Amino acid sequence: MEFFSGFVDFPLFEYSEEEKRFQAVHHAFTSPKLEDTAFLESDPGKVRARAYDIVLNGNEIGGGSIRIHTPELQSKVFQLMGIGTEEAKNKFGLLA
C-alpha cells in the first residue's frame, strides 16, 4: 500500500544567532505566503514560505517553491536577510 503526503507551511526564514540576521530556509527567491506578508516587518519568523515537499512511503520524492514575482517584495526579503541593493545586484544580477 502506497502512502502519499505533502508538507507545506515551512518557515520562510530562520534566525542565525551567529550572524545576527534572518536567513532563507529554502532560498532567497521563495515567495512568502501572501497572507503572511504583513509579518515581514513585524515578525519575520512567523512568515511561511510558498514551498512544499511531496513524500511517498516516508521518502521525499519532490519539492519546490513559488518564486517571488515583484521587485518590491524581492527587495524587502533581501533587506530582511541583510542583503543590500549593491550586494544583491552583484550576487544575483537581473534577479535582484
What does this molecule look like?
It is a single chain. With 96 residues, the chain is of the alpha+beta class. It is 23% helix and 26% strand. It is built from three helices and five strands, in the order βββαββαα. It has helices at 39-42, 71-80, 85-92; strands spanning 4-7, 13-16, 21-24, 51-56, 59-65. A three-stranded antiparallel beta sheet has the order 1-4-5, with no helix packed on it. A hairpin with a 2-residue loop joins β4 and β5. The chain is elongated and about 50 Å long. It starts with a strand and ends with a helix. The model has no long low-confidence stretch (mean pLDDT 91).
User: Cα-atom Rg, whole angstroms?
Assistant: 15 Å
The amount of helix comes to 10-25%
* Count of beta strands: 5
Mean pLDDT: 91
Largest sheet: 3 strands, antiparallel
For the terminal residues, how far apart are their CA atoms?
A: 46 Å
* Beta-strand content: 25-35%
Provide a count of the helices: 3
SSE order, one letter for each helix or strand: EEEHEEHH
